[in-house]
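Input set for joint prediction.
Command: fold jointly, output tokens.
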Amino acid sequence: MTSITLRSLRKEYNGQVAIPNLDLDIHDGEFFTLLGPSGCGKTTLLRMIAGFNSIEAGTISFDDVVINDRSPAARNIGMVFQSYALFPQMTAAKNVAFGLQTRNIERAESIRRVEAALESVHMAHLKDRLPGEMSGGQQQRVALARALVIQPAVLLMDEPLSNLDAKLRVEMRDTIREAQREAGITTVYVTHDQEEAMAVSDRIAVMSMGVVQQVGSPAEIYRNPANRFVAEFIGKTNLIVRDLHQRDGVTTLDLGEGVSVDVTSTIAPGVSGRVQVSVRPEAVRAGGSGLQAEVVEETFLGSHSQIRARLSTGETIEFLEFSRRASLWERGEKVVLQLDTEMLTYFDAETGASIMQGAKL
Amino acid sequence: MKGPGDRFDGWTSVAVALTGGYLLLVIWPLVMVLINSFAGGGEFSLAGFEKFFSSRLYYGTLTNSILVTVCVTVLALVVAFPLAYFMTMFRIGGSRSIQMLILASMMSPPFIGAYSWILLLGNNGMITKFIEDTLGFKPPSIYGFAGIVLVLTLQLVPLIFTYLMGAWRTIDVSLLEASESMGITGWRRAVQVISPLLWPTVLAGSLLVFVRAFADFGTPMLIGQGFRTVPVLIYSSFVGEVSIDKSFAAAVSVIVIAVTLAVFLLQRYLVSRRTFSMTALRSIEPRRLPGWRGVAVHIYVYGFLTLALAPLVVVVFSSFRKTLYGQLVDGFSLDSYVDSQRDILRYVGNTFGIGITALIILVVIAVLVAYLTVRRKGALSGTLDTMTMVPYVVPGLVIGIALVTAFSQGPFMLTGTFAIMVIALAIRRLPYSVRSTTALMYQLNPSIEEAATSLGASKFRTLVRIIIPALAPGILSGAILSWVTIITELSTTLFLYNTSTQTLSLGIYAEVIRGQLGTAAALSTVLLVLTMLSLILLMKLPGGQKELRV
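tokens >
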């Protein structure tokens, strides 16, 4: 069991700063995900932890021991690559056994462990296949077994599912989660897919431009995003701009058309003026009393529909509705949108930072 | 910045060792040639260059060479383009065998081509005699300019052809369909759509043809007679038919290198201006061409094949003819083999001994250099990469001269030894080997290596257990290709051998010059059989056919 500590970490590529200054604590046995759009530095960070990228400043420690100068081979890591990186000339079993050979594990024991590892990813029946004879999903299962069989201190995964098709991705992420839980290995997982991150992670670090925007459990970052970037990147949201009004110690948010919300206890004290309101699709319901809107488009997605409507202010609101037997919405149809005010979150209109109570201002 | 490439480890020592070896065995000898070219009688002088440009006898060889080379390059392109076009677009009977045979003709030693065209169209040639006997007039002479151009063109068309075929495979059929949908078909499409896509390949292929034709020594030596090219001039001034002038030979060598280098840089510049990469999801499917056009296309393809293979057939045929004082006469016998069996065994033994040693060194160095240039980009590996490419623009004859100059005296007395032959052949072939191995290395996903490291494998273990086995099929087929060029190499080793290190190709050359045509034919047949066996072995290897494309 290993915890990972990153302190004041800095990465430059040819003078270009990729990660300016990063601190992160990854707990023992945790499934920790680095999530962000491409180019945000998440893979760079993972490869620094693995030892494939140099470190320009700062420290990386495993269990409080600084490992900056250790080669990847000496860090006791297991790594799963986006491109699988199976050795093309070796069978599945030989691929898995490779790491054990460098550790001088006795033959019988090695065979036993290889079989167990392949079993745990449901690949025992294909142990004599070459990588070229396996599908992408099968290759990635073998790669996972190869990384796990050496019982590494830390398991590192670099977008392991992004080369797989959608259905297989869902299946594989269950396998990964299962295998990780069973082994109890501290895992750092990189992905750009927020749904995947939510599905597998204990905690997520959302990154943008080399900076960690927020660290938290999937529910925390979804319900209480630290800033506009996180709100928009995790799940879908509608952003509308409104004004705060202060009267007699009571702060209200005027949503328009006579609808207003008392936000005295939700918004941090002392905030006033224009704010951005994040309205998650599930906080919107058609019908009842609320804001007047006009349907622009409905996209039928099977179990539910996604409806885009335009408010009288011109702003667009997207919301979801479970599929009904009855006919779909017509373009231009009038609709009243009721907002679940409990679920709204608020950001500074200028900086985009959260102004919710308890948020770091 | 400190990148992984700058890390000091075992690979750094390898890079330093290789660089040192290259400086000693390639750069230093060439610098010696350069110094010699500017040193007449112990002090700085331009006498060598002055001599070259003072007499038509000398500078004429340069214009001759350029004339031959330009003609050959243009002709080879003009012949090869339709050949590749037909083979790609239309179904040709026996297409696979045709490609194999064209390759075989490319791989056969060029001087055998020259020699067998003499057997066919020379003063005493089979066709010459036939025409004289039946039609009563003498056909135009094969010797001189026309003969050189004929032999070299036939030799080098297959080279451009294989380049073009390779490029054609990267063209997605949708590009052709798109142009068809816009109403552009047939030759207009070939010119407007396909040619621009093939342009970089055409340039690369032309450069190779240019360099080979310009540097070729065997062909003009055997068939040129009065028409002398620069390599012949270098040879004769170095070996001294009339008088030995090493400083002059060095000066001419420098001029040759300058010309080749200029062409090389020009080609690099032209290619760099338009680079694009293509991969075909769906390659072009050849279709049947009916009617007279189908017949015409077949005639073209088979006509070329006949011309290209004629020399090989003639040589094998001649080796079984009776000889009298070295000349071929009527009747058949095995005398050419039986009489020279001791020589044949000696030549074959040397060819294998020297060739295989050179090959092993070649493969090891190529793998190391390729690894360094692909995975350890940095100043040192960049220098190394550039240095390995030097012999690419330096004609074999000049490399030979350089090695003789550097290693015939002083601390490294190597001329005439086994070692110098091995060194010469390895140096000569390295640019090609390094290039093909580098291409292989680029295809190997870097993650594979990182995976091995992450599993705790050391650098050496990763190289031996992962990288080399993963690239083994490609390395092996590349090695067989190198083997074929090693056993057919003539010009590089011409100054370096003695009787105990004489190889097959050197033996053939000596016999032809001595006028022993029967023995030469027998030796050539042995060399051809060796070449063919190697090529067949290559074909049998998994992925070996792919390797034959360039």
